[in-house]
Amino acid sequence: MASDDLPARFLKAGEDYLEALRSLGLDPEGLLWCIEDGSEEHVLVLITGFLDQVGPLELSRYLFKAYNASATPREISPFIIRFQSPSHPSSKDIAFRWSSRDEIYVRMDKTGSHIEQVFHVPPGHKMPQGVVSATNMGLRFPGSGVTFAPEWIIQMKLARAENAADRARHWRIFSRNVDRLAA
């Protein structure tokens, strides 16, 4: 899968969706386009601590409310949103691997379809033997169930986890804003 498989309108719609979420009080730790394993359709992965706070059903219910109140872009149906916790290992892995300025190289397995090892090579350093650049390549991370390209990341900021009290306060703000619009 090449990184140009994602239409530019998807990136724009994702950016608009992020802006809408922020205006409602949800600034996610991550938002990125992916292709789920066994599918050819793009989905938008929302990485948020709200998932840990209220669970997937309540989070989904509020995103549908926001969508039905026209508070989020029509191009992003709630049916294509997938949730992931920022504490999930693949969320941390994605954030770590794409936050550095290093060149990313991978060693593929014998079939050429799965990554065996990832290398971070600082600019100007020699690339390890038998690896390929991950720059224009869809990457699948073990345990995540998705394939994505670095260019598909709209936001990723998993620096430190928010404490439970702050997360609960932010959830109240978000849910109150959505409830006001849906009334």
Describe the structure.
The chain has one domain (3-99, 138-182). Helices cover 36% and strands 22% of the residues. The protein has helices spanning 8-24, 50-68, 89-99, 164-182, and strands spanning 30-36, 42-47, 81-84, 103-108, 115-121, 132-133, 139-140, 146-148, 153-156. Helix 2 (50-68) packs parallel to helix 4 (164-182). The model has no long low-confidence stretch (mean pLDDT 79).
Feature tags:
36% helix, globular, single chain, alpha+beta, three-stranded antiparallel sheet, 9 strands, six-stranded mixed sheet, 183 residues
Shape by Cα distribution:
globular
Structural class: alpha+beta
What kind of sheet is the major sheet?
6 strands, mixed
Overall pLDDT metric: 79
Distance between the termini: 43 Å
Residue share in helix: 25-40%
- CA-based gyration radius: 18 Å
Low-confidence stretches: none
User: How many strands in all?
Assistant: 9
Secondary-structure element order, N to C: HEEHEHEEEEEEH
Specify the number of helices.
4
Residues in β-strands, percent? 15-25%
Number of domains: 1
Q: Topology, please?
A:
Blueprint: H1 8-24, E1 30-36, E2 42-47, H2 50-68, E3 81-84, H3 89-99, E4 103-108, E5 115-121, E6 132-133, E7 139-140, E8 146-148, E9 153-156, H4 164-182
Parallel strand pairs: 2-3
Antiparallel strand pairs: 1-2, 1-8, 1-9, 4-5, 4-6, 7-8
Helix pairs in contact: 2-4
